[in-house]
Amino acid sequence: MTDSTTGEPEPQAQPQPETGRRSHAGRRNFMRKVFLASGATAVATMGGAGAWAAMADDATGSVDATASASPSGGAGGGPGGGAGGAMPTEGITEEFFGLTTDGKRIEDLYTIHSQKVATAPVTAAAQAFLAGLSDSEKSDAQFAIHSTEWRLWSNTDAYSRQGVSIADLSDEKNALGEALLKAALSAQGLETTQLTRKINKAACEAINSTQYAEAYYWTIMGTPSATEPWGFQFDGHHLVVNYFVLGDQVVMSPCFWGCEPTSMEIDGTKTEVMQEEIEAALAVVNSLDSTQQSTAILKSEKDNDEITAGAFTDNAVVEYKGILATRLTAAQRKLLFTLIDRFVGKAKDDVAKVQMAEIRKHLAETYFAWMGGTAAESAFYCRIQSPVIWIEVDCQSPFAFGSLYGETNGGAPTQQHLHCVVRTPNGNDYGKELLRRHLETSPHHH
Q: Which end of the chain has fewer CB atoms surrounding its CB within 10 Å, N or C?
């Protein structure tokens, strides 16, 4: 069963996900049965582009004829309310192009050059994680660097994922996975992943939906190397990290950060996540004068789901809206960059420093947009968009866990259910543009 307001599968309606390529095959076969029994409409209703993706022939993403019914085009919606209000109009049957403002990429934004990022620790951590897996687990977890598995992520709980699940790994192997996250993320980024998982586990247990309490999966793309491209994906409910490495360059996007609830009492202690992001966003909009707000605020009310570039919308086309950063005062710009840093700063400091420098170069093309209220407890949506950064912050309706914080599932949007998406526009999500340039210029790839 699917919630009609968010497109999110109800937790009780699906069996416990399987792991790795077995999961992929099981999902594919299930969706084929749906297609044969009920047709394309049923498939689209169950998961939009993600459902079509589920029918891919293998883990590297070749697609059979049944997937040809998938629509193509621009931005749309997706599972879990994470990709817009309607179902997606783009699937992985389309070649990756990237998020743009008009369907045309700005070229030469991303080049292969030394960024002096210390990638040896994350590479070593990934190597140790793989070495700790059994042969079967490694087979489930590892994919080719160019695999479409990169694009098969979702923020929903009941989505059937590839890779190896933390629920199925031993404590020792999960410790190796946690070490990989620690090597890739800053202290606040790591804390966000830990708090999100802690709250999700407690919330699932509270509503007796324990099959999704630890539904987080690892996949490794390519072979961790100091010189060759590789990456990893950590994918689960309200938490997705895509991490690409090439030499001393890193691209950490797309990322999905969120939670429901964002605040919960666990074992007698109040546990919160994403509060600084909410406060930073409100600080920006409330620093604006009335004239600035008239440009930045697109509407004073918000719908349940305003996300436009979530799961399965890699090729979304979204025009610039809102107020230009150059129309802000120095103090207001400082607040804007504080908000940006709450997301970019989830990566290691040297990675974040490189990205923040790129973002500052495009200040004259950076827009801030807002929907919803501006009071301390208001539900809102905000977006930061430039040629090199995309951040969405969206307060959504209570879905599965509303009863845990005194709200009715499907009710008005609330800060207790947060979806945030971070992307690298113009073709460099998943490090795609760097990978393309590497494959073109490396002699051993010809």
A: C
Sort strands 263-266 and 269-272 into parallel, antiparallel or unpaired: antiparallel
> Which of 57-61's residues contact partners 24+ apart within 8 Å by CB, and which partners?
57/28, 58/24, 59/21, 59/24, 59/143, 59/147, 59/149, 59/162, 60/143, 60/144, 60/146, 60/147, 60/148, 60/149, 61/92, 61/147, 61/148, 61/149, 61/151, 61/152
Flag whether pLDDT at 310 surpasses 70: yes
CB count in 10 Å sphere of residue 207: 15
**Residue written as token pair 């109040």:** 270
Each domain of the chain, given as residue ranges in start order, spans 97-441
The per-residue pLDDT for range 259-302, each reduced to its tens digit, is 999 999 999 999 999 999 999 999 999 999 999 999 999 999 99
Spatial distance between the Cα atoms of 57 and 140, rounded to a whole number of angstroms: 16
HEC secondary structure over 196-246: HHHHHHHHHHHCCCHHHCCCEEEEEECCCCCCCCEEEEEEECCEEEEEEEE
Element (H, E) at 423: strand 418-423
What the block records as the tokens of 139 is 């087979």
